[in-house]
Write a structure and sequence with these properties.
Chain A: It comes from Petrotoga mexicana DSM 14811. Chain A: It is found in: Cell membrane. Chain A: It is a multi-pass membrane protein. Chain A: Keywords: Cell membrane, Membrane, Transmembrane, Transmembrane helix, Transport. Chain A: It holds the Pfam family BPD_transp_1. The complex is a heterodimer of chains A (about 290) and B (about 270). Chain A is mainly α. Chain A folds into two domains: about 35 residues, no CATH class; about 240 residues, Orthogonal Bundle (MetI-like fold), CATH 1.10.3720. The longest helix of chain A has about 35 residues. Chain B has about 270 residues and is mostly helical. Chain B is about 75% helix and about 0% strand. Chain B has 13 helices and no strands. In chain B, helix 1 packs antiparallel against helix 13. Chain B is globular. The two termini of chain B are about 40 Å apart. The chains are: A mainly alpha (about 290), B mainly alpha (about 270). Chains A and B meet through helix 1, helix 3, helix 4, helix 5 and helix 7 of A and helix 1, helix 4, helix 5, helix 6 and helix 7 of B.
């Protein structure tokens, strides 16, 4: 029986602009990408865009970089965010000041500004990071951070942790503040110590937010473009090339639009897979 | 005991986190010889305003205005498109609601770069390439979903009995919404609008790809041009970066309560 109630009618009227403008635009763009990725320059159907994209030796390099960049950034952002959230949750006086400095400052900094600042700090000759490390005796020679693939990747990851950990910090702080005090009191009566309270009350209570933050941070990190673009441009060589910077390079440097459409679709499927996985895990978590 | 440890650690973390920003400020007030001096100076020995004068001479004001046009229009348009759907998602149950809500969640996870070429082609075909309108339209696809999520979170917090009372008094649902709900959620709506504003203010990829003429470029693109392959003009770049960061920073600090609420309610509440 298909009967539309009055409320449903109102609801449909209300969501109409979203469906008409946003949903149709995005569906159109996705279709265009799929079409482009299966056509060659003459407009004929072909698989060669995908085959060429995957066979390119850069494909594996940038895939590896994307995995390292994402895993290291996510672990760094989540642990720093959790640490800061726990500390901020302990104090009352001055919480706003510390929150503004630690969580708001990096968040409000423009992506490009964060990029150029870190680029300058990692400068091999005049960079403050070499200077500090040298003064404290951690290094005996200045390191050309952005001049070698491995250190360049480490440098962009460090900058990204700085730029992005605020979000996990804010999520975790909201989650911690929502945990009922009674749970801690009950644990205390049962004789739990600080560590046990953390593992038996805090972590289980925080689990849904942990999963959500993990997923958001993972996807945002994979998608994050401007920091690498300004700091290294994907270089040296392909040392810091990730999926998104590579698609950009293919587009605007090499002008291979069909290949970039193929790569875009592969990236899209990866993101879609992670999102669906997350929604599955979260529904399972909510039902249990 | 734990409190003292917390404060101690927070102070150390604050110093580390604030340092890059401190370095940005310090460098923008150093003279060129001091920027390239050895040993490094940790505060400007000769405070200079030459880089700020230089960035003014390069007409940073014009790019500020360009960015303002794009950012303000984008946030207002995405609010207008998002407000009713967000309300519907917060109040009604209807067939297809779950898949539409999932689409909202999914859309904001799409990487902007995958639509770079399709949007570029689309804008070129409809004659909107290198126009503010074209750039704004492409932003809206990304800002509307997150706006819906934020707004829905704010609407959920308002008890339904308020509209019910208004409707008993003879208001239609739309009237009840505009007269009762909208004024109550105005701070929230303003903060979502600001959030979108700041996203657009900072966005680099689309603005540098779709606005081709130099006179139309936004602040991030303008700043990115100082970074050369061989030579970067650090002085004016940092002065401009500082100027570009101050407005969002002030807005963020003032509205942080709302941002945090909007973000977390959107992400945490289902």
């Amino acid at each position: 029986m298909l009967k539309i109630s009055k409320n449903e009618k109102t609801a449909y009227k209300m969501v109409l602009p979203y469906v008409l403008i946003i949903v149709s635009l995005i569906v159109f763009l996705l279709t265009l990408n799929i079409y482009l990725s299966f056509t060659n320059n003459e407009g004929n159907f072909t698989f060669s865009n995908y085959i060429e994209a995957i066979k390119d030796p850069v494909f594996l390099i940038m895939l590896k970089n994307t995995v390292i960049w994402t895993i290291c950034s996510v672990i760094g952002q989540l642990s720093l965010g959790l640490l800061v959230a726990i500390l901020l949750n302990q104090i009352k006086k001055g919480e706003v000041i510390f929150r503004s400095i630690i969580l708001i400052l990096p968040w409000a900094t423009l992506d490009i500004v964060a990029g150029v600042t870190w680029k300058w700090m990692f400068n091999d000759m005049y960079g403050v990071i070499n200077d500090i490390l040298f003064r404290f005796g951690f290094i005996s020679d200045y390191i050309s951070w952005l001049g070698q693939p491995k250190t360049a990747l480490a440098a962009v990851i460090i900058a990204n942790i700085w730029k992005g950990f605020s979000l996990s910090g804010l999520f975790f702080l909201a989650g911690l503040q929502a945990i009922p005090v009674q749970l801690y009191e009950a644990a205390e009566i049962d004789g739990a110590n600080v560590f046990q309270k953390f593992t038996h009350v805090t972590i289980p209570q925080l689990k849904p937010i942990l999963i959500t933050t993990l997923m958001f941070t993972t996807i945002w990190t994979i998608n994050y473009f401007p920091l690498i673009y300004t700091m290294t441009g994907g270089g040296p060589g392909y040392g810091t090339e990730t999926f998104v910077t590579y698609i950009y390079r293919i587009n605007f440097k090499f002008l291979e639009y069909n290949k970039s459409a193929a790569l875009s679709n592969i990236l899209f499927l990866i993101i879609l897979f992670i999102s669906i996985l997350y929604i599955k895990v979260l529904t399972k978590e909510e039902n249990s | 005991m734990y409190k003292i440890l917390s404060y101690f650690l927070l102070i150390i973390i604050s110093i580390i986190i604030a340092f890059p920003f401190y370095w940005l400020i310090v460098t923008s007030f150093k003279t060129y010889p001091e920027i390239y001096s050895y040993p490094l100076t940790y505060y400007p020995h000769d405070v200079t305003f030459e880089h700020f004068k230089e960035i003014m001479r390069l007409d940073i004001g014009k790019y500020f205005i360009n960015s303002l046009i794009v950012s303000i229009t984008t946030s207002i348009l995405s609010l207008i498109i998002a407000v009713l759907p967000a309300y519907a998602f917060s109040r009604f149950s209807f067939r297809g609601k779950n898949s539409l809500l999932t689409s909202v969640l999914l859309f904001q996870m799409f990487p902007m770069v995958i639509f770079l070429m399709p949007i570029f082609n689309l804008l070129k075909n409809i004659g909107l390439l290198d126009t503010y309108l074209g750039l704004i339209l492409s932003y809206i696809a990304f800002t509307t979903p997150i706006t819906i999520i934020f707004l829905r979170g704010f609407f959920i917090d308002i008890p339904e009995s308020l509209e019910e009372a208004a409707m008993i008094d003879g208001c239609s649902i739309f009237q009840a919404f505009y007269k009762i709900i909208l004024p109550l959620t105005l701070p929230g709506i303003a903060s979502v609008g600001t959030y979108t504003f700041l996203f657009t203010w900072s966005e680099l990829l689309y603005s540098m790809s779709f606005l081709l003429s130099k006179s139309k470029q936004t602040i991030p693109t303008f700043l990115s041009l100082f970074v050369g392959q061989y030579q970067t003009r650090w002085g004016p770049l940092f002065a401009g970066s500082l100027l570009a960061t101050i407005p969002p920073l002030i807005i963020f600090i003032i509205l942080q309560r709302y941002f945090i609420k909007g973000l977390t309610s959107g992400a945490v509440k289902e």
